[in-house]
């Protein structure tokens, strides 16, 4: 592959995120979109912001507008230490580093550990944003089979046995795109493998707070904290427009992440970090999170019910206990992209699942449906439209 | 040099910014610091923030809290187009990309154009933050001589003639650390060289709005817009804690910068971009900038006057018409680091200039003095202390 001589050679591995390109097409007025991966605007604490802002300026004043430490705003590291303790992540403030969204954690970790040609293990399908963070560092990928209980440890061990794996990337809870959650037994087994093979895991956990049913599971981090970078974000429980992500990293890696971040953006917005402190410690989070869950739970139920009602018998789909996505697998031979175009013509969009697979010609019959942006009755209508599009696509094939 | 096998090979080029390390030492209570490079907190529009925030929430509501385009918040790109037009940068909103501080521009440009071993030309001395942004992409450096009128075009041409230069990095106005400003004739000459050798320049312009005397000069960009990435920031005219930087880039490079930024942090904080829109368009900037200049101008005058009064005759220093720094060159043989330690003992800090030189054992007799954080009478006192430390260091040498 030729590279423009004005550019770095690493650009040959980089391309625009296909989902964002698709979203451009579906942004026309009137389109019902199950394609996005973003929170509903009505889930944001918009009404609380004046109060939060007022408290921040009263408490921190000019400090909230000034440069700050690369590691993160100290009061936020302390507040996150308390927040994480409720989620089986017992980390001191010092062990927590703040980043400009969890995307920035993915970029920085890859920058620090991946030399060109190093192997990263991912789920298949996986989160595309992670691939665009990793791409400039020129890794090679190995994918590991995944089922409804997440990555299969035996399949992972096959890879670890035969290859020098530099990093594993996993979203164990309510994964994007599948909604799958790694079972407790597999969390334990993977933690054990990390220790046995002394391999580093980047555990991406943006969705676990969005739980509508069932019981929380401890992160893989809790089974092997020396081998895991635990990464999360306030984008789904506060507001993505603030770009606050964070990670808990092993001691040997932490100074390197700080050096790298210093070169990338000096530090994350002090003002937004101060707003996050007030949101976490001022009693806002528990109330707002309850509101968010009460918004999404019925939407997810409506989507699952509509699928049962309208989709053909030979389709299956995930039934996650939380998160933002449901994953649909059509019968072999289904061309989900043909369904997509037909459905978009009828005014309803989703994402053909093949975009989440590294291998070409894989996942052709799959679809990712998002349920956070649309209300219950619209979801029912949207699923009917997609079902019609499926019928047409199937009729054409037959 | 050995690299920890858990890390990427690129980490061998990376190290913590020495100035930030020095700043840790000088943060003890009571220390007078001329070492920093940050704006005075009293220069921030702290009192205006409630009004600005209120307007933003009223105007944009949940949109200010939502994900947004990688390219930047559209109203901010429009507002910056107007702002830049006042500074001889005629760029449409579409040509302007928003980044998370200008540090993030430096990182992203280097990521997109520098392959390992590619040559970057810098001034000597140069801004350390740029070197930490560039380091992970493993460039080689060539330095070009600089005098009171900035980089010497003839010296630059010598390098361009003999080497394949991938990128030139310049801070043409009130440079950090020297305060030097590239003369108009040299701006024109360098613009001409860029075209002749079809070479790319990264023009870093954080300080030009902080002008206390004399007339504004057009950026090098205006002489060769196809060969220049013009980069600037709102950190010095609004607030650094918001992390709003931006650049104007040639058309061929822009899509690549967007793809890279998507992988690094998806986009810059929507809320902070919306605050910046209101600051720029709501009539705040002109009043606040006048306040900032009236704060810094007398400080800089006090520093220059104190140097004349207290420093030995064989020292020379820059007399910039703006910015945040004055550069002092002591007589050959002076060990400015010895002066530093002696001065710190007496309660006054600055930065020994050698840290800004790529070559070891260079710039040993130089010092960078910042004047933004300290009032006039304290500046006079601080210069007296440093003068005493010089006397002691010189006596010991003699």
Largest interface: A-B, 76 and 75 residues
SS elements, strand count of chain A: 15
What is the number of helical segments of chain A per DSSP (H or I, 4+ residues)?
A: 12
- Briefly note the structural class of the backbone of chain A: alpha/beta
Q: Enumerate the spans of chain A where pLDDT stays under 50 for 5 or more consecutive residues.
A: none
> What's the Cα radius of gyration of chain A?
21 Å
Helix content of chain A: 25-40%
What is the general shape of chain A? globular
| Helix and strand pattern of chain A | HEHHEHEHEEEHEHEEEHHHEEHEEEH
How would you write the strand order of the largest sheet of chain A? Answer: 2-10-9-8-7-3-4
Distance between the termini of chain A: 39 Å
Residue fraction in strands of chain A: 5-15%
Oligomer description = homodimer
- The overall pLDDT of chain A, averaged over residues, is 95
Main sheet: strands, sense, barrel of chain A: 7 strands, mixed
Attribute tags:
four-stranded antiparallel beta sheet, seven-stranded mixed beta sheet, 398 residues, homodimer, alpha/beta, 12 helices
Summarize the structure.
Two copies of one chain form a homodimer. Chain A has helices at residues 18-25, 49-60, 74-85, 102-113, 128-134, 153-162, 184-196, 254-265, 270-281, 284-310, 336-345, 376-397, and strands spanning 32-33, 96-99, 119-123, 140-144, 146-147, 150-151, 165-170, 201-204, 228-233, 245-248, 316-317, 325-329, 348-349, 351-352, 366-370. With 398 residues, the first copy, chain A, is of the alpha/beta class.
């Amino acid at each position: 592959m030729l590279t423009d001589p004005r550019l770095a050679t690493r650009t040959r591995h980089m391309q625009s995120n296909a989902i964002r390109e698709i979203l451009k097409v579906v942004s026309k007025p009137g389109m019902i979109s199950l394609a996005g991966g973003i929170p509903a605007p009505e889930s944001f604490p918009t009404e609380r912001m004046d109060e939060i802002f007022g408290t921040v300026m009263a408490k921190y004043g000019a400090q909230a507008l000034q440069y700050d430490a690369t590691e993160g705003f100290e009061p936020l590291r302390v507040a996150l230490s308390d927040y994480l303790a409720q989620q089986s992540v017992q980390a001191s403030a010092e062990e927590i580093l703040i980043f400009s969204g969890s995307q920035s954690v993915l970029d920085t970790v890859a920058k620090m550990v991946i030399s060109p040609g190093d192997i990263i293990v991912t789920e298949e399908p996986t989160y595309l944003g992670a691939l665009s963070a990793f791409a400039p560092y020129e890794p090679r990928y190995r994918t590991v089979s995944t089922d409804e209980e997440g990555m299969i440890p035996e399949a992972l061990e096959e890879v670890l046995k035969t290859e020098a794996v530099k990093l594993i990337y996993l979203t164990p809870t309510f994964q994007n795109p599948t909604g799958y959650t790694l079972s407790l037994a597999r969390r334990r087994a993977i933690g054990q493998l990390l220790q046995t093979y002394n391999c580093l895991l980047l555990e991406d956990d943006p969705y676990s707070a969005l739980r509508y049913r069932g019981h929380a599971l401890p992160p893989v981090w809790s089974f092997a904290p020396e081998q895991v970078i635990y990464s999360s974000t306030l984008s789904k429980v506060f507001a993505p427009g603030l770009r606050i992500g964070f990670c808990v990293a092993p001691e040997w890696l932490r100074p390197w992440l700080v050096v790298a971040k210093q070169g990338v953006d000096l530090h994350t917005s002090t003002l937004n970090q101060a707003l996050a402190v007030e949101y976490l410690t001022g009693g806002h989070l528990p109330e707002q999170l309850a509101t968010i869950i009460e918004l999404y739970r019925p939407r997810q139920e409506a989507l699952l019910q509509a699928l049962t009602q309208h989709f053909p018998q030979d389709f299956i789909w995930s039934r996650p206990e939380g998160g933002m996505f449901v994953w649909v697998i059509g019968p072999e031979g289904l061309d989900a992209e043909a369904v997509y175009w037909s459905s978009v013509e009828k005014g309803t969009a989703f994402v053909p699942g093949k975009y989440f697979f590294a291998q070409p010609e894989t996942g052709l019959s799959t679809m990712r449906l998002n349920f956070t942006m649309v209300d219950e009755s619209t979801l029912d209508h949207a699923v009917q439209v997609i079902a019609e599009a499926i019928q047409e696509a199937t009729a054409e094939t037959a």
